């Protein structure tokens, strides 16, 4: 008889799900404002299933939300539920339903501006903000991203490349339907949306992971603790060529602290080797944003 005990499934607290779906709800409201008050009335589209849904709505006269749900369902079942996971599929379905609902609410309001360039810029900012919140909450609005994730595992193309190819086709179709000037405005909106999503996901004040290889690890650690207020993790390593033991310091700092960190490290060890990489998210620990004095 095996002594292995079955793993106990951990259940998240109710507050986690309340926060998660509240963020999706707010994100759907914001995204629908960007679409219905700026982009859609000016024939400027987003990429992916959202863009296809906008064009199908223009062609048939049926609601945008209807096509958004119908076109996403196959991707959601085939990819989201079976390939990625049930929690992602549920969050995405909820986000799509919320966006469809709020799009129907805001559609009768009409456009805020008749200038397609202003619509592309401000609509892109607002739409990207809403989509970013939904993605941060663990959902999505676009089935093409699910396809891209699956194809990334089965082809030589990355997720970004697959999404780009799909959206180039969609935006080209918008040129045939609305005219090439609107397709170019749609490209501007797509770029703004993508950048705004990055801002929401990564934050305006990015954090950086720093690896420091130094022979003066005690002095550097003490200085970073005292002068920068950052905790440091000590990793034990060895030189690949010489085989000599090396101590590697690891810590996370904000963008504003990077220059100060380099100054401290080089002051203690002018021969130190430092690598700095952007961090997209931080979970746990006692990391806090601090002001530099």
In short:
The protein is of the alpha+beta class and 293 residues long. The chain contains 10 helices and 4 strands; from the N terminus they run H-H-H-H-H-H-H-H-E-H-E-E-H-E.
Structure description:
There is one protein chain. It is built from ten helices and four strands; from the N terminus they run H-H-H-H-H-H-H-H-E-H-E-E-H-E. It is α+β, with helices and mostly antiparallel strands and 293 residues long. A hairpin with a 6-residue loop joins strand 2 and strand 3. Helix 2 runs antiparallel to helix 3 and helix 6 crosses helix 7. It is elongated. The relative contact order is 0.12. The model has no long low-confidence stretch (mean pLDDT 82).
